[in-house]
Amino acid sequence: MNLLELQRRMAEDVRRPLTEDYEMRSFADDGRPVADIAASYISPNSRLSSFERLEIYNRQYWFRLITAVSEDYPTLNALLGQKRFDALILAYLDEHPSTSWTLRDLGAKLPAFLAAHPEFAGRRHRLAVDVANLELAYVDAFDGKQLDPLTTEEAQAIGADSRLFLQPHLRLLELAYPVDNLVLAVKKEMPEVDIVSSAATHRDVTNRAKIPPVKRGKLFLAVHRYDDSVYYRRLEKETFLLLEGLRLGASVAAAASQAFAKSKLTPDAQALLLQQSFAHASQLGWLCPLPGTDVALPHLEMKVN
Amino acid sequence: MPANRFNGYTDYEVGIGLRVPHYDHILSKKPIVDWFEIISENYMVDGGRPLKILDQILDQYRVVQHGVSMYFGSAQPLNRDHLKRIKELTKRTKTPWLSDHLCWGSVDGRYTHDLLPLPYTFEAVRTTAERIRMVQDFLEIPLAVENVSSYAAYNDSEMTEWEFLNEVVHAADCGILLDVNNIYVSSQNHDFDPMDYVNSIPAERVAQIHIAGHSKFEKYILDTHDHPVLDPVWKLYGRAIERSGPTATLLEWDDNIPSFDEVHAEALKAHRFLRAAETAMSVGAGLREEAHV
């Protein structure tokens, strides 16, 4: 067995899912005894068989990865309960093993995976997906890239035809449940951790928070970083649509037009909201110039319909 | 001896790992610490609090980078994106040397995020040394490779772990981050005398030393970094210092992390050995001068 063959062999064995009791499986998918596979390249010692030695790494792999994802999704963990949450994470990681040198991105596809697999959340599926999306947005906002925002002069020069970048760490969410307070409450109880040791001997249970009932209710939310802290900001629907339009590359006029197309606000109220939306977005540093462009284009008349 | 080409000719003494629970204490109390070791991957991000904290630490302290995902021993090509990110960070930290582990952890684009042991074969020596040389050339700073704790041994191994380490560092012409706790853990898991290991290391290549605590289980010992340093590990440390001279030393404490003061006090116990080594060196130098006269 050359080096690459050995590494492929061991990687397959280390990544093999554990039993329900978090032990190494006795048989591989092809029916071969794992004890035989282990003995083919790992030597035993006086206390541990080849199987037992391999099992240390197999368990470490899963405990470490489950812990890494759990740290990003503490509220989802509390909402689903330990057993369901672990089942979700094991299935998720089996389908989405790590393809990056960093553990930071390991849970990035979990909300989409959960959305496609309602069996892991039962009746609270939509609530669980909302929680997962918000917790992922927190991760992105926490250490996502920050561009230089528009200067005051540039912000004042925004015109109808201007196209703007939104701050990369800003996430816009349309949620079916008002889960912001719920997630905030759980986050406050969570210690911040960093990646250090590779040793993992057990499944860490870090959250036992009780989740109160949450009533359904539409929520438009911006998750962003300001002065190195992550904030959730509730938005008017029109503001959300405006920012979404800008994010997708629409001009200011086109984004505004689309945002207010179905609005029930009076024209004056719409104009005021448009003005306030831009003012707040500028104050919070959400608006950035497109690279290599001049923001100073003809001024937008504050009439949107 | 402490300042050598593998640690950028620096003379660092006792440092500790920079960990999140200690941020507030360090930034508000500004304790006297010779240097901090950071886990590179924790700061290889695009922005936000981690980099802001790092910059504040860099304003006041010396920082050395230690990585956990280079996987020098993986059999396939290096990840260029990863290397670029590390190089960016080295420019920020101005780390005089950089360390990572003598292990493998990824294959076919999939990552285990573990420090998996290598088979001690000549093929693994060639592959690993070549990758270390490539990384060293790209990063343009001295590299030190750390011996890992292991729980499995391979049928194909052709030499002892310390022979393998020596072969690799000579072939790559790199330094060693000698983890004496890892030596102790592996010695118990593989039934060898840890002192044989320490005595076989090319002392002139030791750039840095790690000390840490571990956990004993019924049939094996695990490198958990969640305890004070145990006596057998201090004994190995004393011998390593005796051989290589006062060397940059770092205490790793990564789980069940106690207060900053407790961690720092545990690390500073290393001074006892460092001072003894300094005394031995100056006495030795004095004797040599006398003989010359």
From TrEMBL, chain A:
Top-rank taxon: Bacteria
Native organism: Acidipila rosea
Single annotated GO MF: DNA binding
UniProt keyword annotations, A-Z: DNA-binding
InterPro entries per the UniProt record, alphabetical: DUF2063 (IPR018640), DUF2063_N_sf (IPR044922)
Domain Putative DNA-binding: 6-114
Protein name per Swiss-Prot or TrEMBL: Putative DNA-binding protein
From TrEMBL, chain B:
Pfam families: MbnB_TglH_ChrH
SUPFAM superfamilies the record matches: Xylose isomerase-like (SSF51658)
Database matches in Gene3D superfamilies: Divalent-metal-dependent TIM barrel enzymes (3.20.20.150)
Organism domain of life: Bacteria
UniProt similarity note: Belongs to the UPF0276 family.
Protein name (Swiss-Prot/TrEMBL): UPF0276 protein C7378_3500
